[in-house]
Structures are given as C-alpha cells and as structure tokens.
C-alpha cells in the first residue's frame, strides 16, 4: 500500500498500451507489477498518490490486494470479448478453430506484459493446474459425449486411443533420443527418460478443437466418435504416462532401473487407468441416486452433480489413480440418470455451467501459453524443435494407419483411407501438452526451456496450420464434384432427397451389436433404473424436442401468424397457367437464394458437438415449426373435409381426436409392455400438444386448464425403439364416436386416435378398448381458428 | 440375437426376399429385428401408427409422405416383404452392375428405381407426372413459414418451367430424371448400413 513515486512505467508507456489494446481499457492495469513482496510499487502513475487529510486518507489505492484475481478476471474478459468478435463474423468459425483465437489473444496479452516488462502473476503452477484448471475441461468433454455411439465403437476407440497414445509417446521419445545421441546437435545431455517424458506429453492431442471446423462436411458417425473418443481418453492416458515417467525420473540414476521396475510401471499404468474408471463409476451411481430425492430442492441439483464429479477426481488422485479417467467415467455414468431426474432448469444450468467452467479453464491456460511464448525464457535448438515436429507427424501417421489397419479387420464397417487421413490430420495439440511441459520440474529437467519451446512450436504449428487447412481438406476429400451453379430444380430435389434419406435412416434405426447392448439395457431396466430414477417419471429419452417445447413459444408463433388458418389454404385447384415468364438471371439467383435460406435443414443424425458453445437453437426451432405446421395442416384439411392428398380412398379411415383431461399416474409404465397400457388398442397414437388449448373455447370434457407442460409420450415402448409420438395424418371422416381414455401421465395430454376400420381385428380391439370409464360425450365441435385437436363427436 | 443361422429360419420367405432385394443375410436379419421392434403389439405387420411412432419422422418435413411410401395403393399393412422392398431402394449400388444380365428386371437399387421412388414422393395421384400443384405442395412442406405464398408460387413456376420440356405444364418422370442427370443419385439415396 505504498504511495511512492511510480516505477519504470511512466504514464506515457501506459498511454501507448492503451492505444495498442483498443477496446480493452482495463488491461492497462496489467502494467502493474505483481511482486508485492519484492518491490512495493504500484505501477500506474495516477494512482500513486492518495489524498490525505490529516491522518486519514480519503482516497487510496491498493492494487496488490486484488492483483491476482483482478488480472485473471481481466484475461478471461478479454478472451470473451475476443470470442464475441470472432463469432460476429459468421464465416470465421468455419475457417479456423477457436483455439487459434485463444492463442492469439494469449500471445497478445503476453506481448503486452513482456513489452511493459513486468512479471505476470503466477497463476499456473502444478497444483493449480491439476486441481482446478484441468477437472472442468475433462468433465465437460465427458459429459457431452454421446454415449450410445461411444459404446458402440468402444472397442475401436480404446484400441486407437490407448495404443495410439502409447505408440506415439514411445515412438517420439525413442526417435528423439536417437537424435539426441548425435553429437552435432548438442543435445547429448538429454537422456532417455527425459525424451520419453517429452514424447508422452507431446502426444496429447486435442482433436475436438477442430471438429467445429468440419462439422458441416457431414462427417460420419463412427469417425466422429473416434475423434471424440480419442480426445476424451487421450488426456487421461498422457497424464498417467507422464506421472509414471516422472516417478521414474525421480529415481535419479536411471541405470538402476531394472526390468522389474518397468514391469511395475506397466502394471501401474493399468491399475491407474482401471482404478480411476472404477472410482468414477461408483461416484456416478451415488450421485445419480442422490438426485432421485431432490425433487423439492431442485436448486442444489447442479451442485450435487458438480461436487460429486469433482470429488471423484480428488478421491482418485488421493490414491494416485487417474483422476481424469475417474471424472470422465463419473460424467458418463451420471449423465443418463441425472438427466432424467433433475428438473429442466437444473439440466440447463448444469450444461451451461459446465461449458462456462471449461471455457474459463481453457482460456486461462491458453493465455498463459501466450504469455510464455513472448518472453525470454526460451531456448531454441533447431535440431530438437525441427525433429520434434517431424516426428510428431510421422509417428501419428504410422500409428493411425497401422492401428486402423488392424482394427478394420474386426469392424463391420471399416474406416476408409479417407477417414484415416482425416484422423491423422486432426492431431492438433492443445492446452494439455503445454501445461504438462510447463509443469516439468526444473530440477529434474535442466533443459526444460528447450522442451517448452519445442512444445510451443508444435502447438502453434498444429493449431494454426493444421487447424486452418483441415476444413478445406475435409471438404476436398468429401465432395467429389461440386457444381456450384445448381438450378432451382436440383436444389429442391437434392433437399428432398436428403430429407428422404434421413427419414429412411430413421426408419432403419440404429444398428448395433445387439447382444451386449441388449443385455445391458435389460440390466439397466430391471435394476438400475428402479434404484436411480425417480418414480413416476415419463420414460423417454429426455433430451427430446417435446420436453422443451414451450407454451410460450407456441403462442408466439400463433401470434405472428405463422399458424394462421389462411397460411396454407388456397389449394389452387385451378391451374393458372401463367405465361412462361422469362426470368432474368438475377431473379433466378435471388430465387435460388431464397430457397436455400428458407428450406428446412436436414436433421443431423450425428450428434453435433461444439466445444465452445452449446447446440444452436436453430435446429430446435425448425423442428418445432415443422411439428406445429403439421398439426395445423392436418387440422385444416380435416376441417375442410378434403381428403388428404395422398389418394387414399376417403372412407378408409376415421380419425378421432380425443383429449384427456387428466390422468392417473400408473406405475410400471416404463416396462413398455403393451399390456400395461390402457391403450391396448395399438392404434392410438398420442400427441401431446397442449398448445392452443388456452384459446379453445369449447371444451367439453375438461374443465381444468391444461398446464403448460408438454411432454411426449411413447405409447408403446420397446427396447430398441426411439421415442417419439406419432401424428395422425390419415384423412378423417367426420363421424365417430370418441372416447376418452385415461392417460398415464400426471399431466394432461391430447390424444388422437386413429382407427382403421379396414381390418377386423382392429375394430375388434377397438371395441374392447378399455373404457376405464369414460364417457366422452364427444360432441362435434366446430373448429375455431385456433382450436386444435379437439374433435369430438 | 446375433447368431444368424437359427434366426434366419424365422424370417418368412427369406430366400425370396434376398433374391429380390439383394440384401445380405446379415442385413436382412437386422432389418427383420428392426421390423419386429417397430411392430408394437407383435401383430406381424406394421401399421401406419407404428411408423408414426418413430419420433424422428415427426420432425421430418416429409415425414408423412415417407410413411405413405410404405403403403402403396392404399393398403393398411406393411408386411416384412414390403418393408424390405422399400428399403431395398436405398441399398448402395453394387459395383458389379455391369455384369448384370440385361434381361433381368432392374434391381430395386438401380439409379432409375431410386429416382422412381423419389418421384413418387411428389406424384401423389400417381399419374406419372408432377403437376404444378403437386410441386407447390412439396415446396410448401419443405420451406419455412416466412416465405410468402407468392414467392412459393413463383418458385414453383420456375421449377416446373426448368424441367418441363414438352410444355404440358407438368414434369414427367423422364423429364424429372433428365433434370437430375448430373447429380450423384447413387450416393444421395444410398444408406451405408444397408449393404
């Protein structure tokens, strides 16, 4: 708290920096020195003095007190501002991975700090990194991992990630050792262990960072999973290797390392890995179990999730097991059950908070990396750096092609060479390598600076060069012929075919190796779910569209006229053959643009994961729009008495729309047995749209206002079937008796019942359909403009 | 559920289906499992409702039409044979089509047949032509709500005009396939897992 005269940083330098760093005025504070212990000098000129009246200071400044958190916050804020700028330009995110941006920001900050000749706060040391910065990053990647494809490909993933990391680490280490033996390079004091350690830390890749870049190229699912899986397991494996090798190094005289030690090292590797996973699973189950009871206090649900994950990490670390693998396993295990248990808002909170934490951690690491880049603590050795880079590429290529050659033998759908090239090229290093290099103990590694330099070079090279060029490479490999100038015809038909293909793929469903998966699902059903999931919950795959369909948005859509009755009318029976107008090319181009921008996107089957942001809302909005429109169109055509235009004979089907005012929660719904459903009549398909009910004036059966909640319901659940509710699309006739039935949900629902009078058995079933008492006096209702699915007879 | 031999016997007419569609034994088995999984109530056939319960189809703009393509000619049931037949259109094209006997009927996954399948999504009244009205309807399905009716109509006009060669205001199948001759239909309408 001194008020001495300002140090080497005069006000002029300060102004210069302000100009240099436009927009971030706060960063000028970085000029203030950090060493509060060494020199008692605040930096900035103007703050140096205080106003003292008598003995009491009226105005004072104490920067040292807040320095560390202040600067850290400023860094994070700066990175966030940069990200905002990055995303404002809509093409940039597709060009280069966001890590590029973070590195640039880091380098900038580093340049400033270096330029103003001041020591940055010691934010990163080994403890802080391993205890605070690393867990959120790993947790986030574990949590957002799509589990089903992961487990389907788990053999290949383990084989590739595990062995690949080992092969890379050993390969690079050994090759570098051989290089070091060459006297000419001046590296002979780097011994084998150090080289191996360096190899292990440089082989930690972060390929997910590049995923965003080629997301639009429709990477197929297994490839996606390989990249994801590799990223997930890779960190853990490198850290385990790193720790083992450090332990070896600490044994000082490496001549005394015997084969026994090496064997012990291998055994330790396995134990560490497996033990970590085991811990994670246990903690995952415990936390899932606890969330079963948190209905009444949903505000602490995110807390439970995070604390248990963190606890799994720490517990594993206590026993020298792999905390990273533990937290990953915890996230994976926990996710399925927790998602079903927690409330919607908690679920959103968890997702966002996780993203935020991991984003903060990563930003800090990158900034730190930038700060170290611009500095005097480098040791440049051409040979070492050059060969490191070369060996990284070479060994990655070797490991990719060799390992995949073997694993392709066992796969039903082998990876093509193209896929393997993509995997090879996505070997982008990230923050993990840098951290491990930075935290090398100087005592054991006298040439630490050289290692750090080499690591930085590799990171910069891979992130920038590979990151930027991988997009075009993937597009080049993927698309055989791109004729840009497509006619409108082609545009339309292509999109139709894409939708058709997506639809048929959905009909085919997901295929997997049934046996193991079925067994697990049975086990899951019988035991795990009973224990871990709250009672009376709808059993469905939670992250489904319907759950998020909100009344409010539906009302908005109605108000903006998107759902007005006139929007889709005017069937244009008359062929108004307008004379063929000659359209100018600009008209055609603008028409084509209109089409391109407004056509619905094809549903993506591969789960899209973006490390830096959550799933865009556009896809959801589109899906909602489609659903609502389908309902609307259906309603419209039914009202007008047109048979729906697919040429079915009009008398074939009847539609009844029923609405069910209430329901009884019935247990064992989730068993998916047909018998358990009251709608043994399988011709029920249920729709749970409550929209418009608010407007509906004529409501015969229900007095009770529909609640705002819309849920889906699978009427008939089967083990392998995806969830969803169906829509009734058959043409209707306007005469039939409706019935109301009880639903199984605690919340009100709508049902539409389709009965096919065509075959005897159906009407038989229908006749016997359970009337668990419902009278419906279904009257016929005149449809109002907003009245949705109520048609009663 | 993985052992092929014992289960294959349960598929009715397995050999006939194999010959007709060209699926491998393993794929056919998987399709059969999928058929049975979709078949709620174990009726032995699929009804419209079963297909509607595939949630992903509900958010597909063409979901209704895709489902309808499984029910040609107003039938109400989809037997496994029909199911396999429809899906056979999406089998990736075999590389050995050159050696095929030209007198045999084209396999369902030939380019022409794939195009025919797509064509019938447009042509609901099955008159062999896509009228302007039908084109407009498809366009409406596929485009968001923010496009006005006039814009849709002019796009439809343009579409029909581009493809229509004999000037009858409708697009016949030949015209349709001609307008798509540059496109890689084989790749667009093939699903890898259906090998």
UniProtKB/TrEMBL annotation, chain A:
Residue intervals passing through the bilayer: 95-116, 128-145, 157-180, 192-214, 226-248, 269-290, 310-332, 352-371, 383-406, 427-445, 451-474
InterPro entries, alphabetized: Cation/H_exchanger_CPA1, Cation/H_exchanger_TM, NaH_exchanger, NHE_CaM-bd
Compositional bias of kind Basic residues: 781-793
Pfam family, any one: NEXCaM_BD
Residue ranges of every copy of the Cation/H+ exchanger transmembrane domain listed in the record: 76-475
UniProt key word Ion transport: yes
Gene Ontology MF terms: potassium:proton antiporter activity; sodium:proton antiporter activity
Full protein name: Sodium/hydrogen exchanger
Subcellular location: Cell membrane
Domain Sodium/hydrogen exchanger regulatory region: 566-671
GO biological process, one term: regulation of intracellular pH
Ranges of compositional bias, category Polar residues: 696-714
Automatic annotation (TrEMBL), chain B:
SMART domains: EFh
Gene Ontology CC entries for this record: cytoplasm; nucleus; plasma membrane
Localization in the cell: Cell membrane; Cytoplasm; Nucleus
PROSITE patterns named in the record: EF_HAND_1, EF_HAND_2
Keywords of the record: Calcium, Cell membrane, Cytoplasm, Lipoprotein, Membrane, Metal-binding, Myristate, Nucleus, Phosphoprotein, Protein transport, Repeat, Transport
Domain spans labelled EF-hand: 110-145, 151-186
Matches recorded under InterPro entries: Calcineurin_B_homologous, EF-hand-dom_pair, EF_Hand_1_Ca_BS, EF_hand_dom
An annotated GO BP: protein transport
GO molecular function, a single term: calcium ion binding
Transmembrane portions of the chain: none
Family the UniProt entry places it in: Belongs to the calcineurin regulatory subunit family. CHP subfamily.
Official protein name in the record: Calcineurin like EF-hand protein 2
Organism the protein comes from: Myotis myotis
Lineage: Eukaryota, Metazoa, Chordata, Craniata, Vertebrata
